[in-house]
Design brief:
MetI-like_sf; Sugar ABC transporter permease; cell membrane; membrane; transmembrane helix; single chain; about 0% strand
């Protein structure tokens, strides 16, 4: 009985821990909505408002009046969607090549790719801007999409997943049946690595959606602004309407939540895959 009681107490502590972690994770979104649904004066008073108010629609209407919210949201969706699809394709293709193909310099090339992860992205800001300027892509969405079409982390992630999830004998059997490497990749590898693709896709979409510095440098025209740049323009010089800004930020966060909910099962499967393999 003591052992059963200790197990129940242990399970209770685990559940309480997860409940606390969940509440801490959800609280920033809740507070964002609370601020966005109240007035700035209500938030600045002491004690501040802790319950949702009735001003969210008014604050949202002010956001739509100040910026082309739907337009910049569409720009962000185009950029994030294009970058995510290209990263999933090129990184999974490179991961398959580094894992299942044998060619001279393969290991050295992979080490070089991994080494680029140690270089701060800020160091490439000026050279990339000069290159984009020479190509005439300033104020064009291609300036944000093309440099992010593949990344070292995605190649590393897909290589590690493919090496553990796909036996080499499967590749050999497909080659004996006359399949080309691209057909093996398209018809055999991709269905196997769906959890890894979902995980990488969520991370890539979220990072691209929240990217601020590079779009700020290359997208000067307001018609091609992303949502993050447009939200920055809501700040006034002498006063800041935090309720309006947080209302816009809350609406800008919804696409990320929708993407996560759609690929939630595959994301969890990809994260826990390594823990259940023998």
């Amino acid at each position: 009985m003591n052992e059963i009681g200790s197990n129940k107490f242990g399970n209770l502590l685990v559940y309480l821990f997860f409940i606390v972690v969940t509440l801490l994770s959800v609280f920033p979104f809740y507070w964002m909505y609370v601020v966005g649904s109240n007035t700035t004066s209500a938030v600045n008073q002491f004690p501040p408002a802790v319950l949702p108010g009735t001003n969210f629609m008014e604050n949202a209407r002010n956001v739509f009046e100040r910026i082309d919210f739907l337009g910049v949201m569409m720009n962000s969706l185009i950029i994030s969607g294009a970058v995510t699809l290209s990263v999933l394709f090129f990184c999974s293709l490179a991961g398959y090549a580094f894992t299942k193909l044998t060619f001279k310099g393969r290991d050295a090339a992979f080490i070089f790719v991994i080494a680029t992860m140690m270089i701060p992205p800020q160091l490439g800001l000026i050279p990339n801007f000069m290159l984009i300027s020479e190509l005439g892509w300033i104020d064009n969405l291609r300036a944000v999409i093309v440099p992010a079409m593949v990344n070292a982390f995605g190649v590393f992630w897909m290589r590690q997943y493919i090496s553990s999830a796909m036996p080499y004998e499967l590749v050999e059997a497909a080659r004996v049946d006359g399949c080309s490497h691209f057909r093996i990749y398209w018809n055999i590898v991709l269905p196997i690595v769906k959890p890894a693709l979902a995980t990488l896709g969520i991370f890539t979409f979220m990072m691209t959606w929240n990217d601020f510095l590079w779009p700020l440098v290359v997208l000067k025209d307001s018609s091609v602004h992303t949502i993050q740049i447009a939200l920055r323009t809501l700040n006034d010089v002498y006063s800041t309407d935090y309720s309006m800004i947080l209302a816009g930020t809350f609406m800008a966060t919804l696409p990320i939540l929708i993407v996560f909910l759609i690929f939630n099962k595959q994301f969890v499967s990809g994260i826990t895959e390594g823990a259940v393999k023998n």
